[in-house]
Amino acid sequence: MRAALHTVTGFLAVVTLAVRCGGDGPTRARPVPRSVTWTAPKTATPVTPTSRPGAARPLPMTTQPRPMSSPAARPAATAPRPRPVVDRSNRQRPAAVDPDLTRQGRTLFAAIVKDDPALARGFFFPRKPFTPLKKAGNPDRYWQHIHGLYERDIRRLRRRRRDWTGATFESLRPGTPPVWIEPGRVHNRIGYYRTRFARLRYRFGGKRYTLFLHTLISWQGQWYVTHLLPAPRRRSNGRSPTAPR
After folding, report:
1. Is 107 left (phi over 0), alpha (psi -120 to 50) or beta?
2. Cβ(112)–Cβ(157) under 8 Å?
């Protein structure tokens, strides 16, 4: 009787152990203890393999995609500036009312008031085109001569008043109607338009005054000064060279 009892007890122990270890029989899910809480799993961090000596390092990983540039967003290529067209015959006639002439007149007036000829250097006929335009004597040396007269005349006009305080520029207009000077006249290879006694108007003490500029000639459609005041005669080798007049 006792041996049979031990046999039954051993059999029950084996069956119980099989049930707990997930045997073929049905199992019940264990209840989760109340003290246990569920936590969301963290994002896995990519593991960079250890680089061996001489091996290339892997590129860093990026989480944001690179923006794709569209053709419309790309900056447009800057078009090259067109070169100014040079009129070899210099036939372009300056406008009767020219904003550039007003600007040049303002700088000339400032040079007179401040007794500083360098301020109006750009209003004198340029040195570079003077050589092909002039054909008599030494054009470059003669340009230096008349440019010296231009600076001298600015200082002479400055001395017409003891004090220019309060004087203001008003306008600059051509004088006589522009006349075309044919090539070959006044010792010139290239023709040009000329106006005499251009009127520079200014105000001083509530009154309007006028300065007359002796000679302006054209180059590429712009007016330039060759003489502020009448040019003195200058003889050289029995000849009397004259600037464009």
Report:
1. alpha
2. yes
Torsions phi, psi for 125 (to 5 deg) = -55, 130
- Which range marks the domain in which residue 126 is found? 99-227
How many distinct structural domains can be found in the chain?
A: 1
Report residue 105's pLDDT band, with 50, 70 and 90 as the boundaries: very high
CA distance 30 to 193: 112
Query: What Cα–Cα distance (Å) separates residue 135 from each residue in 12, 28, 87, 183, 191?
Result: 136, 120, 19, 10, 12
In a domain, 79, yes or no: no
Helices assigned H by DSSP within the chain: 2-20, 99-114, 127-133, 139-158
Report if residue 71 sits inside a domain: no
* Domain contains 66: no
Q: pTM for this one?
A: 0.62
Describe the crossing of helices 99-114 and 139-158 by its angle, rounded to 10 degrees.
70
C-alpha distance across the termini of the chain, in Å: 154
- Amino acid 27: pLDDT: 46
How big is the CA angle at 38 (ends 33 and 43), to the nearest 5 degrees?
155
Say which DSSP state 221 is in.
T
User: Is 13 strand, coil or helix?
Assistant: helix
- Rounded distance between C-alpha atoms, residue 223 and residue 122, angstroms: 11
Distance CA 93, CA 116 (A): 30
Distance CA(114)–CA(108), nearest Å, equals 10
Task: Please check whether residue 146 lies inside any domain of the structure.
Answer: yes
Phi, psi of 56 (to 5 degrees): -70, 140
pLDDT, one tens digit per residue, over 165-187 is: 999 999 999 999 999 999 998 88
